[in-house]
Amino acid sequence: FQNLISNSLKFCKSDVPPEIHIEAKEIWREEELFKVSLIFRDNGIGFDPKHTPHIFDLFQRLNGRRYEGAGIGLAVCKQIAQRHQGNISAFSQPDEGAAFIITLPVRQDDHYQSV
Questions:
Q1: Among 14, 29, 56, 79, which residue carries the largest CB count within 10 Å?
Q2: 87 is in which domain, residue-wise?
Q3: Structural domains counted in the chain
């Protein structure tokens, strides 16, 4: 999910040092199957919530030509999450940063130790 970190750095505010917080949480468990959430938060320029329904669409660019890019980074993140039977969601307000939450199922086996 390097695209999330890359976007946080690309869409940072010019007058504030960029901050990126990454957190992992177990959100559900049943025997050896559980779900985890990976939460990426930044203090960047954010985006208007009206764009949320289409932010993961291929070639979607919210800022036109102001920033470089083809508009595929978040679409790639969505594809990765879905290929692992998970999902990704986005939350933001203009000038208040953005948060992206990836939820993935995980099966505990002999190679995994709970933290």
A1: 56
A2: 2-107
A3: 1
- Residue recorded with tokens 């083809």: 70
Question: Residue 31 domain-assigned?
Answer: yes
Identify whether the C-beta of residue 39 lies closer than 8 Å to the C-beta of residue 88.
no
Q: Which helix (H) or strand (E) holds 10?
A: helix 2-10
Query: Can you read off the two tokens belonging to residue 108?
Result: 């505990």
CB 38 within 8 A of CB 1: yes
Residue 114 lies in a domain: no
- Mind listing the pLDDT tens digit for each residue in 80-91? 999 999 999 999
25 neighbors 103 (Cβ within 8 angstroms): no
**pLDDT at residue 94, as a whole number:** 94
The string of DSSP codes covering 44-62 is S----GGGGGGTTSTT--S
pLDDT tens digit sequence for 21-53: 999 998 888 877 889 999 999 999 999 999 999
Q: Which amino acid is at 1?
A: F
